[in-house]
Amino acid sequence: MDQKTISQEILLRMVKSFVKNEVAPYDMEIDHTRSYVNDLLAKVRQNDFLSLMLPKEYGGAGFDGRTTAKVINEIAKGNASLAVTLEGHFKSIDQIVKYGNDELKNEYLPQAKNRIVAFSMTEPSGGSNPMGINSHAEKHGDKWIINGDKIMITNGGLAEIYCVLVKTAPTELSIFVVDNEMEGFEYGKQENFLGLTGVPVGEIVMNNIEVDDSHLLGKVGMGKEIGDSAHDDARVLMGAVLTGIMEHELDLVTDYATHRKAIDTPIIQMQGIQRKVADIAISKETTKLLYQKAAWMKDHGQDYEEEAAMAKAYGSRSAVKAGDDSLQILGGYGYSLDYPIEHLIRDARAMEIAEGTVEKMRTAIALKEAESRA
Amino acid sequence: MKIVVGIKQVPETTNVKINEKTKNIDRRGINGVINQYDRHALEAAFEIKAKTNAEVIVMTMGPDDFVVSLQEALALGADSAVLLSDRAFAGADTLATGYVLSKAIQKINDVDLVILGQQSVDADTGQMGPIVAEFLDISQVTYASKIDIADGALHIKRYLETVEQDITAKLPLLLTVTDQANDPKYVNVVEITKSFEKPVITWHATDLNLDDDRVGQAGSPSIVRSISSPKAVAKDNHKLADNPQDAADELVKILKEKNILMEDK
Amino acid sequence: MELLKENWIFAEVDLNKVNPITYQLITKMNQISNLPVTVVLIESTSENLEDEIKEYGPDKIIIIKNDQLAQGNDLEMTNALDTLIEKTGRPNSFVFAATVVGRSLAPRLQARLRTGLTADCLDLHFEDDNTLIQTKPSYGDNIMCEIVVPNHRPQMATVRSNVFEAKKLNNPMLKVINITNLKVISDRQLTISSKTLPQENAESINDAKRIVAVGRGDKTEENLTNAKRLADKLHAVIGVTRPLTDLEEFNINDQIGQSGQSVSPDILINLGISGAVQYTAGISNAKTIVSANTDKDAPIFEYSDYYFVGNAEEFSKALEKVLQ
């Protein structure tokens, strides 16, 4: 066995046991209290989960895209919120690694071991339409002065380092890296979302934050490209989160249907139930294959935009449906706030919107299909 | 000070079934993990290491893929690892396995402390510790629930059925530990990569100066004659009488007959 | 190798009490053995535990009265038993309790005698030539193995508590042999001090041997009080399902199930628990499960060894009365 295979196996062994002992038992409590109870984030930091895919030269473990996605999948089986918090951190690190200059990388990447990094595009005036944003950076000598208001940031309020999309000219988008220790940086209000309630989603306000050129990610005008790249990375990992949610549902429904009887027959023997269970399993497996293919393509330097979009679009829609089927199988228990099915539906529902709506995914997929035949 | 920790790689779940065709245990699709009790043995060694700067050597006997568990132990904090792997070891029962382990520990030389988990979760025998202690001709303390080291001696708490023991043990010693002894840590994600800088040595039968009659199947007095699935896996689902008082009488009678409720409690 | 046509049992003594497994082993051996059944007893000079052992009808008791040995050092006891066996010859079989003491001493003696030992047996029987067929579980009781030791003696085994019944039996043929001149080779490495454990009361449900679990059907004060009284009678610990953790006196440490604790008691009594998956995930290791529920289709019944269809509170009260 080679070093890579052994490393991956050790990692996944650890993740499974961590999820079983530290995450899964708190799934309901995380949802109800809207926070990472059980000192979960401290444990995540202590075990260096935040450095999972951070390159070795910056003190990370340097695991590849497929391994990272598998880890996210395993964590989501225990609690989808925690998986999404890590997804937000990893996709942001990915962009600094890919586009950052050496000075920026040397400053921030070693810190990413302990400090969560976030990526923020959305503003009150625009989300999926980046040109609608108002935040801007102006050059004064060799400094940039940044002003603006970013909202609905995954891990907003929790993260300490932010990649922010701003205008550097009326039709020019660029991305800068700022952090919470800079003068003029303020946390704003937190959102009160329906699902993935463990994930803090919030606002940051930038008042005359002053940074030098090294804080520019890539070059001036590369904002859209880097934003798209962050979306692609996030969508692969969301496919993994959705797979984990459906695996969680399958665990619940198969156990229930095997033991619950109607007139002496376990309900798993009934076709109506079987059809639902089978559909959940097919959706789970399809989503898994899609995210693993996209991650493999990423690891091999191929364009994975379309596969990433498919993983998220297919995965989110089918996970919501799978949740609905699960609820139906469990009947009253499924509908109860005392049992986890209902929050799995709310969690999955978030991913039909976040990181680009399902509609936007379909546009991207359709255009890619046409483009590849043009 | 030198500590050897013996570990075993076991299936991640004990929920295994017998394959109808091969009549053997079906382990397809089940991954290996370090035996849970052995994680406590490792942690006990690391805690002693933290106080005494001891050298911790982790050891296992088994096929080459057990190297994953050795590497994991290195990532957890062991200093070096030894894999005992040879076709000649196949089919060994506890006695033959204990013999090979003891010879390997002797080869390491000057080992002060050997630590094992109280038992493995697959074979469930718990025999390895006492057997190795006997072959090494050293004292043993099994089922240690609390371990401390001071002035070169170990201070151990151990629980029998209704008895609590406080034991002071001088080295050399063999120790087996329960899951009460400590809280094993998770492997740190970054340490996995770093652990590959540490040495993993493989010893074959020829490296150990073994008596051929005492290894593998030839050295194993026990023979597994057959394996089967337990008959009554499913619960009895015995319905008690309809009247609460009759039901209670019936239940208590059954429980007493079956020694589940004993008079003395 | 000198062979002795006897089957031996090691008497487990926890400080000054014979562990009941010893009696269970005597009764079982008497049922299955064609050879004389001998009990080996190590006790302190002030004890006469053979008086109690006699009542179960072994053919012979070998008593080693020695204060040092009675302290329970595995190495010293191994030395003593080894010396004894050198004198008597090797018995056909030698069985121990699968307790901490038995599971520590037996394998050490096994290695000394270089024979086979089967740990944690659930059943024993002999075949015609006095071959001991040992049935042991492995993989956490998911697989049963039949193990034999064809060419070595003694055939050694440790046996789980409470799988066999103990029955008193008068054996007029009983022989008692006192070994007085046994040389004890002492183990200077260990100093052992022992004390009897006090009866635990504030046990956690993880380690509890007996649990009374209450569900949402039992949410009222009065129902809870009843359950607690039953638990007191049984020396059991109270466990709850998720809805009850809303009450101040319970928290996640008292909750059984997927988002709470996994339990493995000898006996679990479920009062008014329906048996949702989230709950039953935590009870798969309970040995004997008793459930009471008004819903005759409650899923919990499927997990139960014994179940009562009806009011859980009435059942609990009735049970309490029987246990007076």
UniProtKB/TrEMBL annotation, chain A:
Domain Acyl-CoA dehydrogenase/oxidase N-terminal: 7-111
Protein family (similarity comment): Belongs to the acyl-CoA dehydrogenase family.
Keywords, comma-separated and alphabetical: FAD, Flavoprotein, Oxidoreductase
Cofactor: FAD
PANTHER family per the UniProt record, alphabetical: ACYL-COA DEHYDROGENASE, ISOVALERYL-COA DEHYDROGENASE, MITOCHONDRIAL-RELATED
Official protein name in the record: Acyl-CoA dehydrogenase family protein
Sequence ranges assigned to domain Acyl-CoA dehydrogenase/oxidase C-terminal in this UniProt record: 232-366
Organism expressing this protein natively: Companilactobacillus keshanensis
SUPFAM superfamilies, alphabetized: Acyl-CoA dehydrogenase C-terminal domain-like, Acyl-CoA dehydrogenase NM domain-like
Acyl-CoA oxidase/dehydrogenase middle domain sequence ranges: 118-208
Enzyme Commission (EC) number: 1.-.-.-
Enzyme class: oxidoreductase
GO MF annotations, alphabetized: oxidoreductase activity
TrEMBL record, chain B:
InterPro entries referenced in this protein's UniProt entry, alphabetically: ETF_a/b_N, ETF_b, ETF_beta_N, Rossmann-like_a/b/a_fold
CDD domains for this protein: ETF_beta (cd01714)
Pfam families xref list: ETF
Location of the Electron transfer flavoprotein alpha/beta-subunit N-terminal domain: 22-212
The protein's name: Electron transfer flavoprotein small subunit
Native species: Companilactobacillus keshanensis
UniProtKB/TrEMBL annotation, chain C:
Pfam families, sorted: ETF (PF01012), ETF_alpha (PF00766)
Organism superkingdom: Bacteria
InterPro entries: DHS-like_NAD/FAD-binding_dom (IPR029035), ETF_a/b_N (IPR014730), ETF_a/FixB (IPR001308), ETF_alpha_N (IPR033947), ETF_asu_C (IPR014731), Rossmann-like_a/b/a_fold (IPR014729)
Residues annotated as domain Electron transfer flavoprotein alpha/beta-subunit N-terminal: 7-192
Protein family: Belongs to the ETF alpha-subunit/FixB family.
Listed name of the protein: Electron transfer flavoprotein subunit alpha/FixB family protein
